[in-house]
From TrEMBL:
Cross-referenced InterPro entries: Glyco_trans_2-like, Glycosyltransferase_2, Nucleotide-diphossugar_trans
Identification of the protein by name: Glycosyltransferase involved in cell wall biogenesis
Keywords, alphabetical: Transferase
Signal peptide (from-to): none
One annotated GO molecular function: transferase activity
Domain Glycosyltransferase 2-like: 2-102
Length: 175
């Protein structure tokens, strides 16, 4: 699948889920293209889907946390984790992980209703609001193998503030 130009992560995810829906797939997986997601963790995501989860998040921080990032990103992730956990009334340890599994209801929902700005944390809140069972599974993350992050320490702090505002506003959105 290709878009005519870069439409962002959210549009790419929605296109993939729409493809899965139209071709009769019962579930779908999303992995980032920078090599951080270890394919050996895929069975853990599939197992959680088989056990009834609709949104499975591969968490760097559930279980034994071996992944390290900058202190600014860790602080921001911890803050977003607490905010999202409070809004969802469920512990969310890795709100920005893009390593995901989608069950049939989640495939249907997110193929037509997708977050535009911050797909990882917003989609967790959207799934919670739709009463889709959310499960986090511990996964191994590798160092980025390709490309560089666009998030500098200042951009990380700004991102955290914008995401926090978006999550608070998501509570009032009708879906």
């Amino acid at each position: 699948m290709r878009h005519p130009f870069n439409l962002g992560v959210a549009a790419g995810e929605a296109t993939g889920l729409l493809y899965a829906l139209r071709h009769g797939y019962a579930r779908a997986l999303r992995m980032d293209g920078d090599g951080q997601h270890d394919p050996q963790s895929v069975p853990a995501l599939l197992k959680a889907l088989d056990e009834g989860a609709e949104l499975v998040v591969g968490s760097r921080f559930a279980g034994v946390a071996s992944f390290q990032s900058t202190w600014v990103r860790r602080l921001g992730s911890r803050f977003l984790s607490h905010l999202l956990s409070s809004l969802c009334r469920q512990r969310i340890t890795d709100p920005t992980s893009g390593f995901r599994g989608f069950g049939p209801r989640a495939v249907r929902f997110f193929s037509t209703h997708f977050p535009h700005d911050y797909p990882e944390p917003e989609s967790v809140l959207m799934a919670s609001r739709q009463q889709l069972p959310i499960v986090e599974v511990p996964v191994k993350m590798r160092s980025r193998r390709a490309g560089v992050s666009s998030l500098t320490p200042w951009r990380s702090a700004f991102y955290m503030a914008k995401v926090s505002f978006a999550l608070l506003m998501e509570r009032f959105r009708t879906v």
